[in-house]
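Sharing a chain and its predicted structure for anyone who wants a worked example. Both blocks are below, sequence first, tokens second.
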Amino acid sequence: MLRSRLWEPSGIGRSPGALVVVGATALLLYGTLRVLWPAVGSPAGSATALLGLIAVLAWGKGIRGSAPLWLLLLSIAVQVLSWGLGYFHHPQWVADNPEVDRLAKLFIFIGVAWWLGGSSRNTLLVWGLAVLGYLVASFAAGGLEEWRKGLEGVRTGFGIRNKQHGSMLFGVALLGLVIFARRIMMNDTRWVPWRCIGWGLALGICVVGIAIGQTRAVWLALAVSFPVAVLIVLLWAINRGMGRRMLRSVIGGVVAGLVLITLGSVFFGGTLSERLETESGVIAEVLQGDLESVPYSSVGIRIHTWVAASDWIAERPLVGWGGEGRGLVIDHTPWLPDEVKERFGHLHNFFLEVWVAYGVLGLGVIAALALWIGRGTWLAWRAGVLPNDMALFGASFFVYWMIVNQFESYNSFWTGVYVHNIVVGGLVTHIWRWQLDTGQRVFSWPRRRGV
């Protein structure tokens, strides 16, 4: 078994020792190398998911009947149903098989959560290695040339799929670095100099990466999620009678943030303002409701494809068009220009893509999962199972993730699937531990009296 100094024993179920070594090692490789070295990280992710699911079913007494397992089955059923009905309605547009991985891959977190074993230390280790792996990958994948071009004002993607995905990963990393700053830089009550230097360096890389990545959705998501985090901290402090003391820390954090924004405007002001102003006319036309006049710019393409998607959704709102739905919208909407059809095969909105593909039933599965995780996180935190900063990160990440997936289908691509499963797995492992410690469920129907 892995040495307990590195990896805490599981608190949610016991698997055979050899399987624990293989599963935990696969998870560590997945977390660290999925972006940095995909040839190793990708199969490690598959091993994490498969072995973890088997272990949950075999040894997960008390958790194998929890919502994530049932929602996984339901997601498969919804995809098969949509495919089957589509086979009778539009067989020429239906894939050869139901392609159940489209939604099922969002449940890799089941394996992640199992191998984390309900441990905060294990979770933070995997999250930290994921950030470290990505920071190294941002230099290794695209090379220093990408950074040089970015610093000169050229939008860059750091060699990670496309320009939006690299920025999204930097945004998640920045959110974590800020929220876990105290935990990273301090040992009990003492500041550790080398940790402070490492944290500052990582923070600087993320801030610059977000600036030169020039992804407006990431800027918007961070501009909303950070204030949400501050508001949550203040409400928590006021509720505990610590408002005045916590206010000083919050003010210090806000001032530090304003300093970073000021420095960013000094060094990247021209690039940032140009990027923000580019689509201002398009947004004004959208707000006026004149959608037909919207040009096919970056924002305009999204607007037009979303309008096209709404027409397809209206025709089959309950079960959708199957796994190929997003491609059907692009390829078979007659009024979309050929250039758009040649360049794009998705809708730049994950939730619309699910709706087009699997209808309200598919959206219902995603909504049910989010609701279960949200309430479970709250309950695990209130019981003291989930630490304060991890709960705060979970809430802030939810806001961030909801926003960025409105403007790019991150959860439809490997980058988003990776982030989703690593983060959600860390939350779910604590929810499972809370369930086992308390004997309670996240949602439970009240028992009828006299029965």
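Comments welcome. The chain is about 70% helix and 0% strand.
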